[in-house]
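Dig into my protein:

:::
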Amino acid sequence: MRRLLAVVPLFVALVLVAPAAPAQACSCAGLGTAQKVAGADVIVRGTITDSVDRGGWNSGRLVTYDVAVAQVYKGTATATASVRSPADGGSCGIEVRQGREYLLFARRVGSELRAELCGGTAPASSTLVADVERITGHGTPPQGVTASQTLASPASVRPSAALPVGLGLGGALLASAGGALWWRRRRSAAAAHRA
């Protein structure tokens, strides 16, 4: 029994002093744009249009992000793509918001596109786009979209607010022109009737 009591403090001391195993956290230090481009199978510029999180608060769940793709810099993608990522930055998930434009760096995993925090995904700033274009070129439209249909900004992915305003103004101009023509004919008819 004395031997057991002598071993217990020694065991506790070893557990407290022994080096811990390295944690499995995201470590993005030192990765430049060229390395991120090389590590990606697909790189696109696009706007996050929706996200679906089917999991609960369990570790390792994946969120699916729908992306309206404006430009493809590496690999292939359609005009609407889905990218899956871990649910939060703590589990190496990308940190994106709906309605904002990003450069998404993804890997192909089976039939899915997967993106992770250290992969390079970031807001599509002019600096980051220029860095990627220096490596990949200017990119191409997504599959099924011609170069003339390629949209240059995230606002062009959404319906333009100017369209309803323009239609409303056009309708008002047509109505006023029609009214002026009717009024002129009525005055001419009245003058002819008096004469």
